[in-house]
């Protein structure tokens, strides 16, 4: 046993030496398999590595199998004995493997003569990375000590593979820097196209999702992982009274810290940005959340263990949601849980400090992180996890900090003080770029600065075409902190206020007063500009952790949105009462989502009447003439538009869902996302028909959704006569600037032309050419 232990240590030391002697990943793997085959006294040692698709294992190096099989033998995870090792994530030792029903024979390997099999999995952060396979001619019973030794070696090989891949990327980066020098002079978008069409070029830059646009260059500041829930074990024989007191103290201390964070952010930014910590405080005082913790302690569980169980339950519920805005609420629960855990176990947070001004790189940035950091030292943000709607990103937007999210592998590829170029216009992140790239981006940053200065003059100007046609641009909002962003970008009120968040941030349904307070803040924030409030849109992919949702085979066409509201009339009526109460603070429109029949709409109107009767009975004032509208999101509503128009004051065209349902194409499904096309002839004709009908009957129409953010889509809609749009606020100044170059005559002619076309490709090319002409010769 001692000899085997020494062999393991020696092998680990020798592998470290091999890394220094090898020039690339393949050479490293070849040297490692030869070393292990020799030390373990086996006929074969092979290493299979997972391809980039995350599904295919490929033979990358072998000592003993036929050379022609290297690179050619592939199998899926779960296929054959090797695939089984990767799937199960544990060592597998089998004698006479050829007789095992899961055995798969590859003729080119010549492995039919081997009668023992040992597979050891390789991992990268608990995810399968590959498999080491040992084979012998004679049947061999690998001992527990040998398997343990090889498992330790596998850990180092996993690290070798990860780091060797990184070195390969760095080498490719240097080569690519020389190759694309001339191309960079053409402009950033040419580089982006080169990266997309060439796999080698894609390694030159990391990619992410744009959360807030902009370009910045600077050193990397790495935000290390902080206190979390890993390795919390249930404590036995606890003192229930002492543990309850321990939780009492931690809750109180966390509430005080949260109040301090709210005050700090309000002083440094605004009360709107600080409002998220008020929401955190509501959760810390929520009886549903707290009772779950105390109930677990009463059953004999430790407070940290119960905190992990309860918070993890909330986080998992949020993370299962397909809606990115709601999915990001998991970060808020993690933030609350992390701070509460620190106070439970007595590990105090002494604050976050950046040693220099630069680009912040992290797995995830939580609201408390943004509150603690010095914003003047943050020029850009890069996160591995997260969506565009996290509160940290929303704070970054309000500060005007460029941000990329979903940059997979950022922490593995970036070290402190690396020079980064964060291009949040194209979604690219460059690590230690060469001189030519730095010079190119320096020029682009100057151009960006000039463009920002140019757009600043449009923020407070009305949206108007070159020949005087007035367009109304409103903002989509979901949080109090969205208000200053919308106002700063010149939004004329709110075209779509999504009310789901107050429900998602609680451990139980918020009461009428809580909702009233929230809606009032939004309405008052826009100072007599109209605010369109959409009623609760949950169900399907948007599940509440405290509300029982049935399993559905197809949730997007199931029990969701207004259907859930009508089946839970008390909850629906409470929300409408809160909206009516808030209407005394400014102009409000009430919007019902996903209406598909006249019966549904009439039932919604009956609930409004019930809400008014309840408020009258309590002598609570409200605006008597709130306009009622519906979202046109499903084909049924399009076909019933004439009848529905008799019951409402306005329509909101929800283009995101309307396009999906109209074309039967889920834009989040990569297999069919190419069919999701806002310029499909059917989509344009539906928009035209709905707007024409609404105009004839004297009903207002507002287009909500991402479609109106792009000039290529905006032109035909304006040409159809649509004059009101609700978009993400940062797009408003650019849209205003474009409108000054667009005449209604051009827009109307474009609408007439594209409505006669039968191909989305033809429509897109026509509009692209038109945008080019408009930008060149306004």
Q: Can you tell me about this structure?
A:
With 778 residues, the chain is an alpha/beta fold. 49% of the residues lie in helices and 16% in strands. The protein is built from 31 helices and 23 strands. The chain has an eight-stranded mixed beta sheet with strand order 7-14-13-9-10-11-12-8. An eight-stranded parallel β-barrel has the order 16-17-18-19-20-21-22-23, surrounded by four helices. A six-stranded antiparallel beta sheet has the order 3-2-1-6-5-4, with helices on both faces. Helix 23 links the parallel strand 19 and strand 20. Helix 1 packs antiparallel against helix 2, helix 8 crosses helix 13 and helix 22 packs across helix 23. The longest helix is centred in the first third of the chain and has 36 residues. The termini are far apart. The relative contact order is 0.06. The N terminus is likely disordered.
């Amino acid at each position: 046993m001692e000899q085997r232990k020494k062999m393991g240590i020696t092998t680990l030391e020798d592998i470290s030496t091999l890394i220094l002697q090898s020039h690339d990943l393949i050479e490293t793997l070849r040297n490692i398999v030869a070393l292990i085959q020799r030390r373990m006294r086996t006929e074969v040692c092979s290493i299979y590595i997972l391809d980039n698709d995350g599904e295919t294992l490929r033979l990358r190096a072998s000592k003993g199998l036929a050379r022609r099989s290297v690179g050619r033998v592939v199998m899926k995870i779960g296929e054959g004995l090797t695939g089984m090792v990767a799937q199960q994530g544990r060592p597998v030792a089998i004698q006479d493997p050829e007789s095992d029903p899961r055995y798969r024979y590859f003729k080119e390997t010549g492995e039919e003569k081997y009668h023992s099999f040992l597979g050891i999995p390789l991992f990268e952060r608990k995810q399968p990375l590959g498999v080491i396979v040992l084979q012998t001619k004679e049947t061999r019973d690998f001992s527990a000590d040998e398997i343990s030794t090889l498992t330790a070696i596998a850990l180092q090989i996993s690290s070798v593979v990860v780091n060797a891949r990184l070195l390969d990327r760095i080498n490719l980066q240097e080569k690519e820097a020389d190759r694309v020098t001339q191309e960079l002079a053409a402009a950033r978008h040419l580089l982006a196209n080169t990266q997309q069409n060439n796999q080698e070029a894609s390694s030159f830059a990391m990619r992410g999702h744009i959360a807030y646009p902009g370009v910045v260059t600077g050193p990397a500041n790495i935000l290390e992982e902080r206190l979390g829930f890993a390795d919390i074990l249930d404590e036995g024989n606890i003192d229930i009274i002492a543990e309850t007191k321990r939780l009492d103290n931690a809750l109180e201390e966390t509430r005080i810290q949260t109040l301090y964070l709210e005050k700090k952010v309000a002083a440094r930014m605004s009360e709107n940005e600080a409002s998220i910590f008020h929401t955190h405080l509501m959760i810390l005082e929520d009886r549903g959340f707290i009772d779950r913790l105390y109930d677990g302690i009463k059953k004999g569980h430790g407070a940290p263990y119960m905190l992990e169980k309860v918070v993890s339950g909330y986080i998992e519920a949020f993370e299962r949601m397909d809606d990115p805005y709601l999915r990001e609420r998991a970060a808020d629960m993690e933030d609350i849980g992390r701070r509460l855990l620190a106070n439970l176990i007595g590990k105090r947070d002494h604050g976050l400090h950046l040693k220099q001004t630069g680009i912040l790189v992290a797995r995830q940035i939580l609201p408390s992180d943004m509150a603690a950091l010095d914003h003047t030292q943050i020029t850009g943000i890069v996160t591995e996890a997260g969506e565009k709607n996290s509160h940290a990103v929303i704070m970054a937007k309000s500060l005007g900090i460029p941000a990329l999210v979903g940059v997979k592998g950022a922490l593995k590829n970036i070290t402190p003080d690396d020079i980064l170029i964060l291009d949040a216009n194209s979604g690219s992140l460059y690590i230690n770029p060469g001189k030519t790239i730095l010079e190119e981006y320096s020029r682009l940053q100057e151009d960006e600065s000039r463009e920002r200065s140019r757009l600043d003059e449009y923020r407070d100007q009305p949206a108007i075409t070159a020949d005087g046609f007035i367009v109304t641009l409103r903002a989509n909002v979901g949080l109090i902190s969205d208000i200053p962003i919308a106002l700063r970008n010149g939004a004329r009120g709110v075209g779509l206020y999504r009310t789901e968040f107050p429900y998602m941030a609680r451990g139980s349904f918020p009461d009428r007063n809580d909702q009233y307070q929230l809606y009032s803040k939004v309405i008052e924030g826009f100072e007599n500009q109209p605010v369109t409030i959409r009623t609760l849109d949950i169900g399907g992919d948007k599940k509440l952790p405290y509300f029982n949702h049935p399993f559905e085979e197809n949730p997007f066409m199931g029990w969701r949105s207004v259907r859930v509201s009508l089946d839970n009339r008390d909850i629906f009526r409470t929300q409408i009462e809160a909206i009516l109460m808030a209407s005394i603070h400014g102009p409000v429109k009430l919007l019902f989502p996903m209406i598909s029949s006249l019966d549904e709409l009439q039932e919604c109107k009956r609930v409004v009447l019930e809400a008014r009767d309840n408020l009258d009975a309590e002598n609570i004032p409200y605006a008597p003439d709130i306009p009622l509208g519906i979202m046109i999101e499903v084909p049924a509503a399009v076909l019933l538009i004439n009848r529905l128009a008799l019951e409402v004051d306005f329509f909101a065209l929800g283009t995101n869902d309307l396009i999906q349902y109209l074309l039967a194409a889920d834009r989040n499904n990569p297999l069919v996302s190419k069919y999701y096309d806002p310029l499909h002839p059917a989509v344009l004709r539906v928009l035209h028909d709905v707007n024409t009908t609404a105009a004839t009957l004297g009903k207002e129409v507002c287009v909500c959704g991402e479609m109106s953010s792009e000039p290529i889509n905006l032109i035909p809609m304006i040409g159809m006569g649509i004059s009101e749009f609700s978009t993400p606020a940062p797009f408003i100044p650019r849209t205003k600037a474009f409108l000054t170059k667009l005449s209604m005559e051009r827009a109307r002619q474009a609408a007439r032309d594209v409505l006669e076309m039968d191909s989305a490709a033809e429509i897109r090319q026509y509009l692209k050419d038109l945008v080019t002409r408009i930008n060149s010769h306004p």
